[in-house]
Amino acid sequence: MTSLLIFLVLVLIGIAIWQLTKIFDLTQVGVDSENSEVANDKDNAVNGYLMFAFVGFIYIFTIYSVVKWGDLVLGTPASEHGADVDNLMNISLVLIFFVQTITQFLLHFFTFKYRGRKGQKALYFADNNKLEAIWTIIPVIVLAGLILYGLYTWNEIMYYEEEEDVIYVELYAKQFGWEARYAGEDNTLGKANVRYIEGINTLGVDLADPAAQDDKVVTELHLPKGKKVVFKMRSQDVLHSAYMPHFRAQMNCVPGMVTQFAFIPTVTTVEMREDEAIKFKVDKINKIRAKKSIELAANGEEALDPYTFDYLLLCNKICGASHYNMQMKIVVDTPEDFKKWLNEKPTLSSQWKEANAPAPEPVPVVVPVETVVDTTKVLAQVIK
Ligand SMILES: [Cu+2]
Asked: From ligand 1's centre to the CA of 145, what distance in Å?
């Protein structure tokens, strides 16, 4: 309460000082016309040049950003459709860059050119059909082209035929982690529902469903190179987003429904580690880590391990406190290695049976004959 009162007093003192300065200003009328609150030529010229300075700042900062952070872009796409996404992105960026450079210059130049000057009157005209036509038709053509190209690319990415030779993988999101389920030999994912979640069945797979018998649940995602993978996404709790940046793939995971995304991985993890841009990035990260390790060692703490590249599945929806660390490693293998890896994984139903097997019968304890105490003998001895 006291602090509120002090705060109110301070505010009132502030208002009083402000009012006093206003009164002081009013008493100065006619003394110095340069002090007037109406902008004069000098004020307008200063603002005009500031406009120029600002457009210069935009240009210089753009160039600086490209030079300083340009190498942080994703680099080689690791999926078949990735090149199309990159193309669309590059075309959009170049167009935006071009239009932005020109329009920002014009905007700032005209504010400077037509800045207020004493005695200057603004020219008024209602409209100019030629100008209107130019700045309507050009954006219409450019935007329609971009939208059509985008739609075409999107359809290409999202379309797949049911009977195609594909692998079905379920991605299950929850606060804060991922799990994946492979459809097994029948290539059909068994039914699942949040109500079936129990014990090791963390995905809520319906273990009575025949299609679920060969399903395999894993915590590290492996994908075969060159084969189409259809992801079925589910969420246990809130909205998440499965984001696989190197594959240029992202799809929301929505509680209560199944969403889908499909792509063909084209670069194995081993191949990507040899990619020049990735090598450059890994070196850069390891230099930072080495520097940090020296600091840590000086404080008697454990040094950081060197970083090696791995594909990642990340969450791209702010879903809670540990959202930043909601990730799963992705390994792209050759088809043979993938098959070998998957074959070694146990099915969920076998894991379930093992975990829920009835406890073995208790073994009866057999007491050796010699140790059995003959109470009558003991009693007889005590009486003696
Ligand atoms: Cu999330």
From this structure: 35
